[in-house]
Design brief:
The complex is a heterodimer of chains A (252) and B (269). Chain A is of the alpha/beta class and 252 residues long. Chain A is built from nine helices and nine strands. By secondary structure, chain B is mostly helical. Chain B has nine helices and no strands. Classes of the chains: A alpha/beta (252), B mainly alpha (269). Bound molecules: adenosine-5'-triphosphate and magnesium ion.
């Protein structure tokens, strides 16, 4: 579905991704983990063609054009939902209007239909009582969840989540994890989830990719991922108290 | 047009090569900046959509109504200062009654559009650049693009339309208030009766100056929106970048208003 073919991304002298190749298959939940600044957000932006690779190609399905400014781009993007790391809400619009925006701009639904869909999406992220609030009056976690509602409201084919659970309390985090899985099962959404939370990655992912130093250190299914002997993976897991057998507990 | 990564060009050696590179960069930027303006005009057919209409009205309120207080004070004092300076000179020749003519001619031809342009560039233009800049560094512009919403239609076009409507009105308002300010000074400092002031002023109020003044104001409005939005869209490097974009937009707007104002005047007189 999403294929990276020897992608290199440079910003000036700084090489962020070096010859990265992998493929996300249709209908899977693909988690990307890795230390800060290794190009996880850049990878997502490459997928949706907000950035274009310095060399190599990023293909979506059969569409391998690495950058274009044509109408095709907007057709391509309409297949995506994207949750930004910074939520990226429009400050002068209420939560409701922010979530309704993609529906109003992309579809020909009536106001009543839009209202139903928006309230439904807000309910899924637990914000049905904050519809009339403005983004500046929301907490960071609530902004994130509004961004999530905006990403899922069009029920797109592919969803890209940039740290959906960062800054959320554990209970809400699990709720968001369940939502990602539910969308994946109900609509067959292909999901790419960038996260720092190994517990969440291990419980929702079909496969986990670890980026390190601009390269893919490993791609494994969760059960193999925790047994991985790659040093970068081990230190990443150890830091979150996850051992080869599962979660580390005091005294064993 | 909307860039998300700094353009890094190879280091050039030698003085001429460096200058050459700077010139090439400058021309490129001017071109992209013009594309923002032209793009906004190209989106004008959408102005009567339900949503765009609301946004135009909102922007009109922001550019016109909200700047009224500062424009009022500036216009009034410009008129007063003009009348005072001119009056002091004219008194040597016992021609104080001509104050009205001079104030009218300067306000209508130059000071009206020029001063309203500067005030709007420094207030509305700066806030526009800062807002667009913040939206750019917060990925909000990217979010719009992903939703297939053209930022030129969604953000720039309503501002452009609002400014094209607001600038001539503000410029006319500046002229009128300057005239009032001049009249007050003429009456209190030089004892020119208001009727004499007014008759002399109207002698110099010709339709041509009026039209050219409004035309200039409209051009200034277009410049302010184009430059401010362009600077905002090309912001990089977070909050520092937003500050930089705001500053650059105000400086560029001031310079362009001066330079373009001169050439428009040359064109018509
Ligand atoms: N638009 C840009 N212009 C220049 N450099 C950029 C840009 N976007 C990202 N970078 C650089 O690319 C590198 C990777 O950034 P990225 O945002 O992908 O990190 P990340 O893996 O998402 O980290 P985090 O977990 O902190 O979000 C960083 O060093 C950053 O400085
Ligand atoms: Mg990131």
């Amino acid at each position: 579905m999403i294929r990276f073919e020897e992608v290199t991304k440079r910003f000036g002298q700084k090489v962020v991704l070096k010859n990265v190749s992998y493929e996300v298959s249709e209908g899977e939940i693909f988690c990307i983990v890795g230390p800060s600044g290794t190009g996880k957000s850049v990878s997502l932006k490459l997928m949706i063609k907000l950035l274009s690779p310095t060399s190599g190609r990023v293909c979506i399905g059969d569409d391998c054009v690495s950058s274009s400014w044509s109408k095709d781009l907007s057709v391509l993007r309409s297949r995506f939902g994207y949750l930004f790391q910074s939520a990226a809400l429009l400050a002068w619009m209420s939560v409701y209007e922010n979530v309704a925006l993609p529906l109003r701009e992309r579809t020909k639904l009536t106001d009543a239909e839009i209202r139903d869909k928006v309230m439904d999406a807000l309910e899924k992220v637990g914000l049905e009582n904050d519809a009339e609030t403005y983004p500046a009056d929301l907490s960071g976690g609530m902004q994130k969840r509004t961004g999530l509602a905006r990403a899922i409201v069009t029920e797109p084919e592919i969803l890209l989540y940039d740290e959906p659970t960062s800054g959320l309390d554990p209970v809400t985090s699990r709720m968001i994890d369940d939502l990602i899985v539910e969308l994946n099962e109900r609509l067959g959404t292909t999901s790419v989830v960038v996260t720092h939370d190994m517990h969440s990655a291990l419980s929702i992912a079909d496969r986990i990719a670890m980026l390190h130093g601009g390269r893919v250190a490993t791609i494994e299914a969760p059960q193999n991922f925790i047994k991985s002997e790659v040093p970068e993976v081990r230190s990443f897991l150890d830091a979150q108290y996850i051992t080869r057998k599962g979660v580390w507990e005091k005294g064993n | 047009m909307i860039i998300r990564e700094p353009v890094i060009l190879p280091e050039r050696k030698g003085f001429l090569a460096k200058i050459g590179q700077k010139v090439v960069i400058l021309i490129g930027e001017a071109g992209r900046c013009a594309m923002v303006g032209i793009g906004a005009f190209a989106q004008m057919p959408h102005v009567f959509n339900k949503r765009s209409r609301g946004e135009v009205i909102r922007q009109l309120y922001i550019c016109a109504v909200k700047s009224l207080p500062v424009v009022t004070v500036v216009a009034f004092f410009i008129g007063m200062v003009l009348a005072l300076q001119i009056g002091i000179e004219l008194r040597h020749f016992n021609q104080e009654h001509l104050i009205g003519s001079v104030v009218m001619a300067t306000m209508l031809r130059e000071m009206g559009p020029f001063m309203s342009g500067l005030v709007i560039a420094a207030s509305v233009g700066a806030s526009m650049a800062a807002q667009m800049g913040t939206m750019t560094v917060n990925d909000e512009i990217a979010a719009l693009e992903i939703m297939s919403i053209n930022p030129l239609r969604f953000l720039v076009m309503p501002r452009m339309v609002a400014m094209i409507i607001a600038m001539p009105l503000l410029s006319f308002y500046t002229c009128m208030l300057g005239l009032v300010g001049g009249g007050v000074v003429g009456y209190t400092q030089f004892t020119v009766p208001l009727t004499v002031y007014w008759t002399n002023a109207m002698d110099f109020a010709n339709l041509r100056s009026f039209h050219v003044g409004l035309f200039k104001a409209t051009i200034f409005g277009i410049i302010i929106v184009t430059v401010s939005c362009y600077e905002g869209f090309t912001t990089t490097r977070g909050a520092v970048g937003v500050g930089h974009a705001t500053r650059t937009s105000v400086v560029l707007n001031f310079l362009l208003i001066l330079i373009v104002g001169y050439f428009v005047t040359r064109l018509f007189y």
